[in-house]
Amino acid sequence: MTQAAPETAAARADVPPTRKRVLLAAPRGYCAGVDRAVVAVEKALEHYGAPVYVRKEIVHNRHVVETLAARGAVFVEETDEVPEGARVVFSAHGVSPAVKASAAARNLQSIDATCPLVTKVHKEAVRFAADDFDILLIGHEGHEEVEGTQGEAPEHIQVVNSPAAADDVVVRDPERVVWISQTTLSVDETMETVRRLRERFPHLQDPPSDDICYATQNRQVAVKKLAPACDVVITVGSANSSNSVRLVEVALDAGARSSYRVDKASEIDPAWLDGATTVGLTSGASVPEILVQDVIALLAQHGFEDVEEVRTATEDLMFSLPRELRADLKAAGEQPDRPRPGGRRRLDVQPV
Ligand code: SF4
């Protein structure tokens, strides 16, 4: 899925810049789960026609949501806002069994665009609950993904919001405790939470594989690499995008002198660039590349014309479209497969 990239001179904090420059993180932007969810709504609009209802934001990016809404997607908060029998897409963040049941009760035709890597965490929760573990879900209370995962086994799962919150956890049997996590957290902060939990519960079990997904990890590694050399790091991403907000924090922790998040280029305050020689630039996993290119163009207007990519991994993962949609496209003789940008691998994911 990923491979290490050779170190570039710009990636090293000890190489002094001679001109104003931009260090552009790679990987950045769209991940496989976001790409799949957005294409699912686009294909649904093409195939079934508007309106197509979408429960919650399909991905946490204002530009994406506004673009799809302009094409006929109708975003709702809950399934009871969808007319009986209509078609509804569940967002990439996943839904609880209760949401699926409520959609079924209203005869909604569901297309489940939950990222397969979120589904993997759901299945872990179900399995550990069946084995009667207390499950400590590290994540942000109220985030849609956390609500969906918690809904798989509410009587077994408690959310741990931060390292400090580890001190308040109460479990039934300290020998039967496992932690799992939201997919879009800071790796370092999560490990700190786990360390504090393990101090209290030495028999704490790890999840069978990383829950923080490859895309979140790769974007954090890339921004960590360039941050020490940067006067300012700009992350493109929406305020409700967990992985985008984490990139802002990770950049600061890794040594950037300052770190900001913007939804789009016009939100950049020119004062941020005063006296700066090196600007780092990255984007969250739900951000289309066009928004990054707009920022590059704006930075060029401020004299930051040299752009050097700092690549720490190469991603080639691609998920197949949701099963329900593929079946309908196939039955209609339409091509359910999508073009593969950059020759990315397509996987028929069978989450564990
Ligand atoms: Fe899936 Fe990770 Fe992308 Fe979320 S950030 S949609 S878990 S690949």
Describe, in plain words, how this protein is organized in 3D.
The strands form three sheets. The chain has a five-stranded parallel beta sheet, sandwiched between helices. The chain has a four-stranded parallel beta sheet with strand order 3-2-4-5, sandwiched between helices. It has a three-stranded parallel beta sheet with strand order 7-6-8, with helices on both faces. It has ten helices and twelve strands. The protein is of the alpha/beta class and 352 residues long. The model is unreliable at 1-10 and 340-352 (pLDDT under 50). Helix content is 34%, strand content 16%. Strand 4 (87-90), helix 3 (97-105) and strand 5 form a beta-alpha-beta unit. It has helices spanning 32-48, 62-70, 97-105, 116-130, 144-150, 187-200, 214-226, 242-253, 289-301, 323-331, and strands at residues 21-26, 52-55, 73-76, 87-90, 109-112, 134-138, 157-160, 177-181, 232-236, 259-262, 278-283, 306-311. Bound molecules: iron/sulfur cluster. Iron/sulfur cluster (SF4) is lined by residues 31-34, 92, 115, 117-118, 183-184, 213, 215-216, 243, 285. Residues 31-34, 92, 115, 117-118, 183-184, 213, 215-216, 243, 285 line the site of iron/sulfur cluster.
Task: Give short descriptive properties of this protein.
352 residues; alpha/beta; five-stranded parallel beta sheet; four-stranded parallel beta sheet; 10 helices; disordered N terminus; disordered C terminus; binds iron/sulfur cluster
